[in-house]
Structure formats: C-alpha cells, structure tokens
TrEMBL record:
<feature type="domain" description="Acetyl xylan esterase">
    <location>
        <begin position="2"/>
        <end position="315"/>
    </location>
</feature>
<dbReference type="Pfam" id="PF05448">
    <property type="entry name" value="AXE1"/>
</dbReference>
<feature type="region of interest" description="Disordered">
    <location>
        <begin position="120"/>
        <end position="145"/>
    </location>
</feature>
<dbReference type="InterPro" id="IPR008391">
    <property type="entry name" value="AXE1_dom"/>
</dbReference>
<dbReference type="InterPro" id="IPR029058">
    <property type="entry name" value="AB_hydrolase_fold"/>
</dbReference>
<dbReference type="InterPro" id="IPR039069">
    <property type="entry name" value="CE7"/>
</dbReference>
<protein>
    <submittedName>
        <fullName>Acetylxylan esterase</fullName>
    </submittedName>
</protein>
Length: 320
C-alpha cells in the first residue's frame, strides 16, 4: 500500500531539517584533516577468470588515513581515460566478490565499487574495518558515535566516499572530468553527501536514497534502519534534541542544498524503508539540475533493473 503523502503533495513537500550555521566549516575541516594523509592508492590485479572485464583490488586512504578497500573494474585491456561510475553500497553490505556487479564495466565504463567501513556482514561481504570507538549505541550503525558530530559514524563514511573520488581521479584509466556517483538506499545517501562535498561531478544517481530528512524519517516509519534511531531515543529519552542536532550535519537534505551536478533520483511510493517524502525532502532542496522517477507500485527495491536500463541510456547521452 502507499505509505506516505500523495505524489502531488510530495512534489510540494519541504523538510523541516535545520541547516547548521557551521555545516560548511565542519566538513571543510573534516576533509582537510584527512587530506593531510597521502591517498596511498594501491591497485593489484585479481585473477578472476573473466574474459571481458579486468578486476583490480584497490586500497586508498580514507578518513584520517585509514585504509578503505574497493573493486576497480574496467573493460578488458582498457587504457582509458574512461568515463567512470563510482558506486556506494546499501546498508549492511560490503564490496562483495570480485566477480559480482559487472554491468558498468561491461558497458564500457570504469567502475569503482567502494566498500563501506564496518559493514558487509549482513550481505555481500566487506573488507574495511571501522577502528573508531564510540559510546553507547543501538544495534546497527545509525547510532554509532551519535553523541557528537565528531564521533558520528557517517562522518567517517562520507569522508571515505570523498576520498574515493579523489583516489579515482588519480588513476590513469579514469577520466577525472567524467565521473558519476551512484548508489541505492544507503549508497544513494552517500552519493548525495558526495554531491554536496565534491565539485566537478558529471552526474549523481541517488536511488531510493537513505539518510535523508531525519526529522521526518525517524518518526514516519517503523522499519529499520531509521528505527534504530527511534529505539535509541526511546531508551535515551534525554538525548533526542542533541541527537538530531548531530544528524543535521549528515542529512541528505543539507547536502542537496550544496550540490550542483545534474542528478537523477528515484523513489517508490510503497517504500516503508525510505518513505518517499524523505526522498522528496532531499530532491526538492537539490540545487543542481534534477529529475526524479517515481515507481508507484514498488517498495524499497525501486525500479531495479529498469533503473539500470534507464541509467545506461542516460550515461550514453551524458558521455556521448
């Protein structure tokens, strides 16, 4: 069933999310601190047995120089520079196996699939630890380090993502002027953060994005992962105001206000995980050129393969 506002109201909806006065300074200082560390990009070929796609095990320095893993996939024997898709994973997943997710390289693009620190044990498998400690948290990642913006988990994840773009731009096989970011759910939220923090992207594809419009998303759904925050605040009743103050620095709504690259969003009207109003909360604030595809009869899977096919057509025009 529909889980949210009618589509006509969604297109008019505006999030109540606050825009912290020092939002830009916080992220400028966060990224500057991590940029003191060399990128340290290492790329090693992987023997997969594939004939049309070459796969490389890539490592680069993310937040505060901590190593982050990724798969780099390119068409066999490609020399570049190639238009490139940098992809971020959904909640709980890691970069998975070297022979998975071959679509983008098969279409002729370089494809950097970035691991998510600390995740990868719900599905897919991951190889990047999160060595930072935190205070009390609920199960999952949504409340890890939520007592302050400095310790909050997604400060590290979003910094890793920005550094992934910088690492990609350092590769000879990558055309640094033709990079798009893509992801579904959590990956869509990370893509929005990157769009707000990185200049010169060729495009942004946030599919049913998570991590958007926390004032609404934490109260409108009983589905995880947003419900992790609700359970935490039901226990730590006195922390609600402070927690939302922290979350404002990591909300896709506030990153969307700072984005300039052209964006193609998707949302689904029967999505209980990332309700469509929370997606429109970010979409309606997005500062760059934008389009959104609405899937009326779908849940959190969104358009699935239909989104892939549409993205291939868009990329062909974008990079013609």
């Amino acid at each position: 069933m529909f889980v949210d506002l009618p589509e006509s109201e969604l297109r008019q909806y505006r999030s109540s999310q606050a825009d912290p006065a020092d939002f830009d300074a916080f992220w400028r200082d966060t990224l500057a601190s991590s940029r003191r560390h060399a990128l340290g990009v290492a790329v090693e070929p992987v023997d997969t047995g594939l004939q049309t796609v070459d796969v490389f095990d890539m490592t680069f320095a993310g937040y505060e120089g901590q190593p982050v893993r990724a798969w780099l996939r390119v068409p066999h024997a490609a020399t570049g520079p190639l238009a490139t898709i940098v992809q971020f994973q959904g909640y709980g997943g890691g970069r998975a196996r070297a022979t998975e997710d071959l679509l983008w390289a098969s279409a002729g693009y370089a494809h950097l699939l970035v691991d998510t620190r600390g995740q990868g044990s719900t599905w897919g498998g991951g190889d990047t630890p999160d060595p930072e400690g935190s205070g009390p948290q609920g199960p999952g990642f949504m409340t890890r380090g939520i007592d302050s913006r400095e310790t909050y988990y997604y400060r590290r994840v979003f910094t890793d993502a920005v550094r992934a773009i910088e690492a990609a731009r350092s590769l000879e096989v990558v055309d640094s002027d033709r990079i798009v970011v893509l992801g579904g759910s959590q990956g869509g939220g990370i893509s929005l953060a990157v769009a707000g923090l990185v200049d010169g992207l060729a495009g942004v594809f946030p599919r049913v994005p998570f991590l958007c419009d926390f004032p609404r998303s934490t109260t409108i759904t009983d589905s995880d992962p947003y419900k992790e925050i609700g359970r935490f605040l039901a226990t730590h009743r006195h922390k609600a105001e402070a927690a939302h103050g922290v979350l404002a620095y990591f909300d896709g709504v506030n990153f969307a206000k700072r984005a300039s690259a052209r964006a193609w969003f998707t949302t689904a009207l029967m999505d209980p995980v990332c309700p469509p109003s929370t997606v429109f909360g970010a979409y309606n604030e997005y500062a760059g050129p934008k389009e959104i595809t609405v899937w009326p009869y779908n849940g959190h899977e969104g358009g699935g393969a239909y989104d892939d096919e549409a993205t291939l057509r868009i990329l062909a025009d974008l990079f013609a």
